[in-house]
Write a structure and sequence with these properties.
The protein has 381 residues and is an alpha/beta fold. The protein has nine helices and 18 strands.
Length: 381
């Protein structure tokens, strides 16, 4: 399937970001706006197909970029022929050994790649794939490549930047190729594509709400204990099996019919995105609901507007489920017959209470929270 700019790019305006005042909302990505999981999975399959064609025999270590690309990176990896290891970059520090790098245009510039196990794993792969939703210059990834090479003496390895969108000029693509870094993507767009169309979007306080102090619903059997944490380097097969088991448990926790015959939302939290893809697709394939949508909360502050064609028409601000001192957002909430909230946040979490309150504000009455917990007595990430 061909993916045009019209299908993949909806420009939106960042709030209070002078370095890069715009961003691209991808309606197929399952992040900022509700997405049919079949569309999200189909796009990831197409991206993986391009990678498989380029590198049919290379054992791969796949790195997905936090937070927006954590879903598409893991989903794309599920279609790769030789994905051996998987890992997300993260903005959540666990105090361990980390490689620190920066993404200067982001709302949260500092990112981490947790380093434990990487040196040994690199002996078993030929190529590292860095998967992101969109790449403009490649500078952030190139900086991380230099750090990996220096830290692990990885000169023999090959590197590829894989993205849904790429807006590098031809000379930059050639420059990277000469450095031994390939670029694989679904679609190229001009640099700063669509920027001028959103610069005059104004702040409408009626579309920017705040949720505080809700009560999180409790249901028996709504915690999945699993040691696999994709913020650390993991075997991709082990991670994939764990996600499938978790998704099955999440779907099983939905209310019985006839409470949920129609519309279902599967909502993730921040970096915890890929399980929403798996659970949403499972609901769709099993015919549990007539309509299923997936998306996630985000740390990215974006202006909501009622302008025709603008992708975000509402925003609710809440405390992060991972850190009550941090602000996070959920966009374009709607009313559904049933909602699954999937998260690996610790229990209890004031931020999850805020999120449930936000869902209630949107008219949702049947909300189930299903946690992925890394150890029975440990809620840290």
């Amino acid at each position: 399937m061909q993916y045009s700019a019209d299908r993949l790019v909806l420009p939106a305006k960042r709030e209070n970001n002078s370095i890069r005042p715009y961003l691209f909302v991808n309606p197929l990505q399952g992040k900022h706006i509700p997405t049919d999981p079949a569309d999200a999975v189909g796009m990831c399959s197409a991206l993986a197909e391009a990678v498989n064609a380029a590198y049919p025999d290379d054992p791969l270590y796949v790195i997905g970029f936090a937070e927006t690309a954590t879903g598409i990176a893991a989903c794309a990896a599920s279609f790769l022929h030789h994905a051996v290891y998987y890992q997300n970059t993260t903005r959540e520090s666990n105090g361990g050994d980390c490689i620190l790098f920066s993404e200067v245009h982001s709302h949260a510039t500092d990112q981490l790649l947790r380093a434990d196990g990487i040196g040994e794993a690199l002996k078993n792969v030929r190529r590292i794939l860095f998967i992101d939703d969109e790449v403009t210059t490649g500078n952030t990834i190139c900086h991380l490549i230099r750090l990996i090479k220096s830290r692990f003496h990885a000169e023999r390895l090959r590197f590829s930047i894989v993205s849904v969108l790429n807006s590098m000029p031809e000379e930059r693509l050639r420059e990277l190729h000469q450095q031994g870094i390939d670029c694989v993507f679904l679609h190229r767009i001009p640099y700063e594509y669509g920027k001028d169309s959103i610069l005059d979007v104004g702040f409408d306080p009626e579309r920017h709400l705040t949720a505080r102090g809700g009560s999180e619903p409790g249901r028996a059997g709504n915690t999945f204990f699993c040691p696999v944490n994709p913020r650390n380097l993991v075997s991709f097969q082990e991670y994939q099996a764990a996600v499938r088991a978790y998704a099955a448990e999440a779907v099983h926790s939905l209310p019985d019919r006839p409470v949920c015959p129609g519309r279902v939302l599967v909502l993730g939290t921040e970096e915890f995105m890929y399980p929403t893809f798996a659970a949403g697709e499972m609901i769709r394939q099993q015919g549990y609901a007539k309509e299923v949508r997936i998306h996630s909360t985000t740390r990215s502050p974006i202006i909501a507007s009622g302008r025709e064609g603008y992708p975000l028409d509402s925003r609710i601000c809440l405390r992060s489920p991972y850190d009550p001192e941090r602000t996070t957002f959920v966009y374009n909430l709607r009313q559904y017959d049933s909602v699954l909230v999937l998260t690996d946040a610790a229990d209890p979490s004031p931020g999850l209470g805020d999120l449930c309150r936000a869902l209630e504000m949107a008219g949702n009455r049947h909300v189930t929270v299903v946690r992925w917990q890394y150890a029975e007595n440990e809620g840290t990430i």
